[in-house]
Amino acid sequence: MREHYAGLCEIVVMLNGKARKLVVRPMDTLLQVLREAAGHTGAKPGCENGDCGACTVLLDDKPVKACLMLAVEADGRSITTVEGLQNTAIQQAFVERGGFQCGYCTSGFLVNAWAMLEAHPEADEAIQRAWLSANLCRCTGYEGIRDAVERAKEIRRSEGEW
pLDDT by residue (tens digit) across 34-45? Predict the structure, then answer.
């Protein structure tokens, strides 16, 4: 049974595969709760209005901008942050191909690229442009990110992930 406190409520989420109870205020965004209450700081506050994608996480395996979602909306749902993508092909590929410069946007790109490749394992350039247009990088020309996505496809293919 969920507890209710003066001005607070308890939510239960599956966070990177583990059940977590979190006490939140009704107005807290998912981004705030992930960073401050759950200690998962990979999702970054950038524009905080849904434009940049630095806060992208997976909600029930679909990318969402955590800055635009209230934490209470995640109650009973599954959340994957960039921390949940450790030792994956996409992470390896970003390192190998330099899919980042300052790194601030990287977690959002990693999460979104992961979701894209789960939905479209052989994503062509048009699919990649459409999916990754939800994320912005102020440092790079996106070449390293595109190269990393292509490398992740190669890794996944060679490891029989599809």
Answer: 999 999 999 999
